[in-house]
């Protein structure tokens, strides 16, 4: 029981550090660095459109995480997590306080598109650098997952935020009803949602929301429409009006046709 308690406290501490790090990113970094941009859009922006599509002046959080952990300039050894964490923390403090383009971890082909980084010396303390490192580590653990919004303590404010986003971006909304115990949900996650063409279609045309039905009810008054079958997919417009619903699992080609019919 004592070991379980220690692990629980450790998990809470790591989560708290991640949340504190996200606050640092949201307050100190978000003015220059977007949190997430789909990788397909990033590739198109830089390698096909010469940055005219997104006009980025700095890398997004997922680009930074890729550079830190997976690029040719990655920092530290992923098999030595504690040392890697210290190295990343040291790099962040060194680079953010004394920016040097020659010491950047960004792709050399993309770096010329960015503005020169201004020093943040005095704006972040040692605890901020530690928490920011925890944020990037936590972000790394989820970077390969679908671009989804997941609910906790669901509120009307979240509904308004989603509808506003759908209106601004001129996108439809997909509500994906799933559960941890759903075999066919996991099959679709593995065989459909990881497909590049499916992800591109979702990124460009929809706001995709995944709801764990073991924990939450459906938003936008959809619970009355739910047939208690996972997976189920609900398509809404930016006014939260239900357009169509598709209970059950789908193979890649059929699901792509569904997306095309509803985009």
TrEMBL record:
Residues 16-140 form the Cytochrome c domain. Residues 1-18 form the signal peptide. Keywords: Heme, Iron, Metal-binding, Signal. One of its GO terms (molecular function) is metal ion binding. InterPro entries: Cyt_c-like_dom (IPR009056), Cyt_c-like_dom_sf (IPR036909), Thioredoxin-like_fold (IPR012336), Thioredoxin-like_sf (IPR036249). It comes from the Bacteria. This is Thioredoxin family protein.
């Amino acid at each position: 029981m004592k070991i379980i308690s220690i692990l629980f406290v450790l998990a809470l501490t790591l989560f708290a550090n991640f949340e504190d790090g996200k606050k640092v990113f949201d307050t100190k970094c978000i003015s220059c660095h977007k949190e997430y941009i789909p990788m397909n859009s990033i590739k198109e922006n830089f390698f096909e459109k010469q940055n005219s599509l997104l006009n980025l002046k700095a890398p997004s959080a997922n680009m930074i995480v890729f550079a830190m952990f997976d690029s040719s300039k990655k920092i530290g050894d992923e098999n030595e997590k504690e040392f890697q964490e210290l190295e990343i923390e040291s790099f962040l403090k060194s680079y953010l306080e004394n920016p040097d383009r020659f010491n950047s971890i960004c792709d050399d082909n993309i770096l010329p598109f960015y503005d020169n980084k201004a020093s943040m010396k005095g704006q972040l303390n040692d605890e901020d650098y530690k928490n920011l490192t925890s944020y990037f580590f936590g972000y790394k653990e989820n970077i390969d997952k679908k671009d989804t919004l997941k609910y906790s303590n669901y509120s009307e404010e979240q509904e308004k935020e989603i509808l506003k986003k759908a209106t601004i971006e001129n996108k439809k909304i997909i509500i994906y009803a799933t559960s941890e115990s759903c075999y066919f949900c996991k099959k679709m996650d593995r065989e459909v949602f990881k497909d590049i063409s499916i992800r591109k279609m979702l990124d460009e045309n929809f706001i995709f929301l995944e709801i764990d039905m073991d924990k939450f009810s459906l938003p936008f008054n959809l619970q009355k429409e739910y047939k208690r079958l996972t997976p189920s997919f609900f398509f809404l417009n930016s006014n939260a009006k239900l357009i169509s619903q598709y209970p059950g699992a789908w193979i890649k080609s059929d699901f792509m046709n569904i997306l095309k019919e509803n985009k």
